[in-house]
Amino acid sequence: MSDTTTTSLLDAITVPAAEGRAIPDAATGETMGHAPVHDVEHLNRAVAAARAAQPAWAALGHAERSAILHRTADEIDAHAEELARIIAQEQGKPLNGPGARFEAGGCAAWIRNAADTALDPEVVFEAPGTRSELHYGPLGVVGAIGPWNWPAMIAIWQIAPALRMGNTVVSKPSEYTPLSVLAVAELMNRHLPEGVLTVVSGGRDVGEGIAAHPDIDKVMFTGSTKTGRAIVKSSAGNLARLTLEMGGNDPGIILPGTDVKAIAENLFWGVFINTGQTCAALKRLYVHDSQYEEVVRTLADMAASMPMGPGLDESSVLGPLSTKQQFDIVSSLVEDARSRGARIVTGGEAAPELGPHFYRATVVADIDDGARLVDEEQFGPAIPVIRYTDVDDAVARANASDQGLGASVWGSDVAEAVAVAQRIEAGTVWINQHGTLNPDVPFGGVKGSGYGMEFGREGLKAVSAPKVITV
Ligand code: NAD
């Protein structure tokens, strides 16, 4: 892929320096381009355009909308390398592995899946002379508010099902990663009718404006639990429907007798995918005393040997923290662990020779619940490994959190692992893997991680107005 093509998509979405906000390359801190600066006035215009475009978009019908969505996915595939390079620079994830190319490919895959998933009317009651059917129609205008960690893919998780069901969408990316979302929307908008999808590249004020907007029917939110709570409050006035995908502090439990070598690779990626900046990454690992040192050593050896570097470097496996703020959070949680006497087995420090906010992949042992690194979401490459002796106690500690996004149980006896999984409070419990997502399989959290589900038929229902027709 030549730099000329990279520049052309970037050129299409960036504005002159005098009109925009500088967006840093996450690895170097140097400006990669300027994003437009949108405010609540832009939001109001986008919502008005979305409202005006919605009836005609809905009237096209499922088959025609799906055909258009397939064309948008083809367009993304045709420009996947340019999109991946924008994501790798702006967010920081490496091009290879489960990184920026994977994210660009995921955008197209999730669009195609939404386009091809049927949500036909269901007969819910039938008796002689009467029949009740449940039909699903569009809600109207969907406001989509996204985070910075998987910016393009998470925007698509919100946009694709909404469009598929005949809604129009106003999307607000994180202020840290507007270019990735502007880029994917630019590619889609080469095929969508005017007004059907608009990106408003604004800050928190625009997010608040979406949540409180009288003409937005549904808010899809992915981000922190704190912001989710604010959105619930702001949306009370117009009773917008909400899907809230929020933070996680996912536990993993390794059962006694597990073949550690067999799970090592899945375990590593469960923790360190996107350098730990993933909502459903494994964030606290409970290991039985009998295998504690073996697991700690295995994870530490892998962490120490993985190449870390800029996203655009083909040899990088791990990247920087996306922002200085996130770097500070990870550093302070590890320092707190150190000050409590925890053992830093590998990492535990910045890697300034790589760039301004790289932090080495870190494994922390001899740490317990109560330490901030265990109790709080680190959202970075630092995993606390906690020793347990009794499985019931490990389950109780895994559940002693106000978050409930994902969890995992690891063991050689799958039936035993499933039995433990049933006792864990989370939206998804994986066995011998963590964080793997599939567009057909519903995904969502419980407790402080939010409510509502995305993906598959459940995801389409979440952006639909149900209507019963009784004959
Ligand atoms: P954040 O809550 O700070 O920001 C998310 C978005 O909300 C941004 O676009 C921001 O501008 C906007 N926003 C901020 N204040 C707002 C307000 N008062 N009203 C409306 N919008 C507002 O989250 P972040 O730091 O971007 O993302 C990291 C968090 O997201 C982590 O906790 C992570 O676990 C979570 N996350 C969850 C999922 C999931 O699917 N459950 C996926 C990715 C990230």
Number of helices: 16
What is the number of independent domains?
A: 2
CATH class term of the largest domain: Alpha Beta
Radius of gyration: 22 Å
Q: Architecture of the largest domain, according to CATH?
A: 3-Layer(aba) Sandwich
Enumerate the spans where pLDDT stays under 50 for 5 or more consecutive residues: 1-6
What small-molecule ligands were found?
nicotinamide-adenine-dinucleotide
Q: DSSP strand (E) fraction? A: 15-25%
Distance between the termini: 58 Å
- Largest sheet data: 7 strands, mixed
Describe the structure.
The chain is α/β, with parallel strands linked by helices and 471 residues long. The protein folds into 2 domains: 9-246 and 449-470, Aldehyde Dehydrogenase, Chain A, domain 1; 250-431, Aldehyde Dehydrogenase, Chain A, domain 2. The protein is 41% helix and 21% strand. The protein has helices at residues 3-13, 40-59, 61-78, 80-90, 100-116, 151-164, 178-189, 204-212, 225-234, 260-272, 292-305, 324-339, 372-375, 391-399, 414-421, 456-462, and strands at residues 20-24, 31-36, 122-127, 130-138, 141-145, 168-172, 197-199, 218-222, 241-245, 250-254, 282-288, 343-346, 362-365, 382-388, 403-404, 406-410, 428-431, 446-447, 450-451, 464-470. The strands form 5 sheets. A 7-stranded mixed sheet has the order 12-13-14-11-10-16-17, sandwiched between helices. A 6-stranded mixed sheet has the order 7-6-5-8-9-19, with helices on both faces. α7 (178-189) links the parallel β6 (168-172) and β7 (197-199). α3 runs antiparallel to α5 (100-116), α3 packs across α7 (178-189) and α4 packs across α5 (100-116). The chain starts with a helix and ends with a strand. Residues 1-6 have low confidence and may be disordered. The structure holds nicotinamide-adenine-dinucleotide. Nicotinamide-adenine-dinucleotide (NAD) binds at residues 145-149, 154, 172, 174-175, 203-204, 207-208, 211, 222-224, 227, 230-231, 245-248, 279, 377, 379, 405, 445.
